[in-house]
Amino acid sequence: MDLLIRDTRVVDGSGGASYRADVLIREGRIAAIRREGDPAPTAAPGARVLDAAGLALAPGFIDMHAHSDLALLRDPAHEAKAAQGVTLEVLGQDGLSYAPVDDRTLDGVRRSINGWNGGGPGDDSVDFDWRTVGEYLDRLDRGIAVNAAYLVPQGTVRMYAVGWEDRPAGDAELTRMKQLVAEGLEQGAVGMSSGLTYTPGMYAPDTELTELCRVVASYGGYYCPHHRSYGAGALQAYEEMVRLTRDAGCALHLAHATMNFGVNKGKAGELLTLLDEALDAGADISLDTYPYTPGSTTLVATLPSWASEGGPDALLDRLHDDETAERIRHHLEVEGSDGCHGVPMEWETIEISGVSDPALGGYVGKTIEESAKERGEAPWVTARGLMIADRLGSTILQHVGHEENVRTIMRHRVHTGGSDGILQGAKPHPRAYGTFPQYLGRYARELGVLSLEETVAHLTSRPAARLRLPDRGLVREGYRADLVLFDPATVAAGSTFEAPRTLPTGIPYVLIDGRFVIDGGVRTDVLAGRSVRRTPVG
After folding, report:
1. Which domain holds residue 322?
2. CA–CA distance from 62 to each of 73, 115, 387, 413 (Å)?
3. Total-model pTM
C-alpha cells in the first residue's frame, strides 16, 4: 500500500535548510517528494494518507555505537531504540561480541560481557545457534525490530586465536586472526572494533592492530576502537589510534569520543585540534558521542588488565585470594589501573546500575562508597565482595564526565551520534532509551548547541556515509523509506537517571522499509529490520 505523507517539514539529513513537502512512499522507498507549491504526488487507490502538519520528517536515526547484540534477538519490540526513531544500529562494539566464535570462545565471551548483554551462564533466553559472522547476520535476517550492521570484534578474535594470555601473538596466531577478520568482512561486517581497556583485546600491541587494520582497509571497512585511555593519557591514546590507522591506510571511527575524568576537564579542544590536523592532512576520521556526562560499563572492567589474564575463572581466583586482591586494590586506588584509564579509583563516582543475581539488587542505584558506608567496611571490600557474589556480572554508571567537553565535541564536523546503550540491569544509563531525542530536544531546541538541521545530519547522513550506505541517511527520491516523523516543539527524552526505561515523547511515527514500526506513538508488531552488510569495494 502506498503511503502519502502530507504537509510535513522535511529535514532531509543533508544539513541544508528544511522545507515543506508531500512525500510519497511506495514499495519501501521514497517514490516522490513534492515541495510546497508543486503538484501533489499521485498515490495509488487505497493509499494511506498521513497528515503530518506540525511534524518534521527525517531519515531514520543511525546509532553508531549500540550494545543490542542479544537484545535484538531476545526482545522483538526493542522499544528502547525503535521509539527513539533509530532505524539502524551498529553492533559488535568495543572488541567483544558473539561472532566469530568456536564453543570455547563463545563460553568465554558470554561470561565476560554478561554485564553488557546478559547471555551469561544459565541464561537460555537466546539460542546461540551461530558461530561465524555470516551466520549471526543470517540470524538477524529472520526478522528484527530495527536494522543492524556489525563490526568484527578484535578482542573476540584474539580470544579465539590466542586465548586470554597477555603476550604478543605468534606468527601463526596473527595469520589466523587476519583470516578471521577477513572472513567476517567477506560475510558482511562493515569494519572491526577494539576494546583496548578490555581483556583480552587490550593485550594486543600496536603492530598487531596495524596488521589487522590493513585487512580491514583492503575491504573498504573502518576501524572503531575504544582506545587505551579516556582518562590519564587520553590525548596520547587518541593520537595512537590516528597514527596506527594512518600507517595501515584504514578509515578510523572513534568510539564514544569523550574526554572524561578530572584530568581532562576543559580539554576537548585539544582533542579536536589533533583530529583537525589529521583530517587536514588527508586522514579519514569520524567519531560518535552520547549527549550525557556519565559513562557506563561493567565493574570488573575497571580492574588492572593483569588481574584478568587467563579469563573469568582466573580473575575470580585472584579476587578470592587475599594477597592478590590486595595488589588489585593498590593498583586501583593508588596507582590507577589501565582498566580505569590510568586514574586512581574514586568510589563515589561508581554507581551500580545492574546485577546479574537478583538477590544483590540492594546495591543497585547506590555508589560503591554509599554501600560501603551502609555495610561499615572499606569501598574495596564492598566492590570485591560484589564482583565475587555476582560472578563479574555487575554493571556501573561512572560519573566522571564534563558538560563543556560534551558540547564542544558534538559540534565537530565529523561527529555522529551513538548511544553506547547498555540495556541490561535494573537501572541502566538513560542514554539507552534517550540519546536521540536528547540531541533533538535538549541540545538542539533548548540549548541551541546545534540547529535542528545540523543535528539531524549528525544522526543520519554522516553515519550513513561512514557505513558507505548508498540509499540511506537522506530524504531523497529512490532512497529507502527508513524514516522518522517527530514534533520539533515537543520531542524529548523521557528517560532519566531515576527512571531510565521511560520512552521518549514527540516521536509518533517511525518507518523501516516503508512499514510502520511506531504508529501513532505505539509499537506495532512489524519486524522490518534486517542485517545491513558491507558494501563491496569498487
Report:
1. 297-398
2. 19, 24, 34, 17
3. 0.96
